[in-house]
Amino acid sequence: MCVGLIVSGALIAIAGYGTFSRVWVQWFPAWWRRDTPLLDRLSGGDSYYTHGPLVPVIAVAIAAYIYTRVGAPARRTRGSTLLGWLVFGFFLFSHLLFTFASVTFASGVSLLGVLMGLVMIWGGRPLVRAYALPIALLFFMVPLPLAWIDGINFELKLFASRSALWLSTHMFSVPAVVDGSYVLLSPDADGLPKTLVIENVCGGLRSIIALTFFAALFAALCRATGVWRWFLLMMAFPVAIACNVARITGLIVAAHHLGTEVAGEHGWFHDLSGILVFALALALMFMLESGVLLAGRILKRDWFDARLLGYLNTIEGDKNTVARTLHPGVLAVLMVTASMSLYLVNQPEPEAVGGVARAVLPTRVEVGDATYTSGDLVLDDKVLAILETDDYVYRRFAREAGRGEPGFDLLIVFSKNNRRGTHSPELCIQGGGEKIISKGPVTIDTGLSGSGEPLGMREVVSQDGRRMVYYLYVFKSGDSYTTNYTRQQAMILLNGLLRREAVGALIRLTVTVQDEDLEAARRLARDAAARLMPIIDENLP
Question: Cα(27)–Cα(43) distance, rounded to whole angstroms?
């Protein structure tokens, strides 16, 4: 049995090499900073999955404990074997498909389905029931797509900041105002303004992801029974949000009384509160469990189970049936899948198309009552390596005979045969160190294709220190436009799988806000979009 487990596990690991090697970089964006301590690498940047490597370790430990309790209970039937092969085959195909398409999240989830199908083939329903918990826990080591993380986290950050502001002003009498990602406090004794930055990782998503994993463990190991375990699991979300609101409230109060250097990033109270928020969440989970058990005693209901993983006592297999992990057919299929996965991962990178985007954009254009001329800007080699295309045009338009007048930048990244070129601007903005303080949809009257319909675009306002920048962007996929990154990626992916041209483009306007006049920057960007988008639409394939 051990030989079959080791060989199968090794083949699944090889099959998932491409998926999780990419995912590992997402877990630890600061991993390659050799000049920083290991702890700082693990928690640096927007590392939402710093708990990731713990997941398989804990899952294996739970599986080992289950084996000491019940061994490998098996009851193989024709139905269970057929179902196991169907699950096994479906998720193997899904894994290869998503590996080919470089969709790491779906590829990683598919590998968990492969593992579940394997267990069904090996020992039928009893074996699946016994080991479903450690397999399910492995889901928490597969990071969500970064586009999802960006959208969810921004909303969580705003909610947590506004809630914390209400608590600070009404309960602790701390005068403060929220401006996007910034909390503006009353000046200090020397009359200097105090500003507290609410980082992305303070918004709640990191805690929700990590806490949901630990809550799943808590729910599996707690003393409550049945539906109450599911109740405790679902309470992880509001508990995580409440704890982060409490943390941000504490940061605001500490910044008011002790100074922003104490409550700001790398301040001692900031770092200490990051640890205490998990202690608070664990205390709340224990309080909820105690409340459930107390209610059970009052209502004289049997909601208490002192046994660890008590459901294992109800699992029975055929005494004469042994789980068959050394299955020649299964191992042969896994070997083929592992080989194909490595082949797909090691394919040469798509050739850059080159020249398409540059021919789209004029070098001189009239916007409003002014004429703008442009010069080319250059993206560095690191950015181009990430985008996997060098087909772009990046121009800075300056107003003729208008020194000191604001101008704008226009970037078009064109990608004919891969999805990475058409990236999410928010991720690049935040990756460059800027803080997004607001974003939302807008409509521009461009008259594309003579339809007269306004074009939906998305605006983003960021700030880095005192510098504020206004962005306006849209994705093009085929003949259609969208501001939804996921929809655009799905359209390109579908076209690629159907062997149609997987063409996409990112079109982004950038205006630096001068003298804190955001409305002037917004007007210039929208006027430029209204003038240039028909030209781009006509010339961009």
Answer: 9
DSSP category for residue 518: H
360, two tokens? 């789209």
* CA geometry: angle 209, 212, 214, nearest 5 deg: 110
Rounded mean pLDDT of 365-377?
A: 86
Q: How far apart are CA 220 and CA 308, in angstroms?
A: 8
In the DSSP assignment, the letter for residue 224 is B
- Domains in the chain: boundaries: 2-143+317-345, 147-298, 364-539
| HEC readout, 232-291 | HHHCHHHHHHHHHHHHHHHHHHHHHHHCHHHHCCCCHHHHHHHHHHHHHHHHHHHHHHHH
Residue 295's SS3 state is helix
Identify the residue with better confidence: 67 or 424: 67
Residue in the structure block whose two tokens are 């992880």: 236
- Position 352 scores a pLDDT of 44
Over residues 16-72, the pLDDT tens digits come to 777 776 655 544 444 455 555 555 555 554 456 666 677 888 889 999 999 888 888
The token pair at 278 is 């998990």
Residue 204 has a pLDDT of 55
β-pairing, 194-197 with 182-185?
Answer: antiparallel
Q: Which residue has the tokens 């006049």?
A: 517
Tokens representing 25 are: 């970089």
Collapse the DSSP code of 157 into the 3-class scheme (helix H, G, I; strand E, B; otherwise coil) and give the result: helix
User: What count of Cα atoms within 13 Å lies in the side-chain half-sphere of residue 36?
Assistant: 13
**Third-level CATH fold of 364-539:** Protein Transport Mog1p; Chain A (3.40.1000)
User: Which pLDDT score, from 0 to 100, does residue 225 have?
Assistant: 80
**177: helix, strand or coil:** strand
Q: 218-229: string of b/e by CB count within 10 Å (b at 16+)? A: bbbebbbbeebb
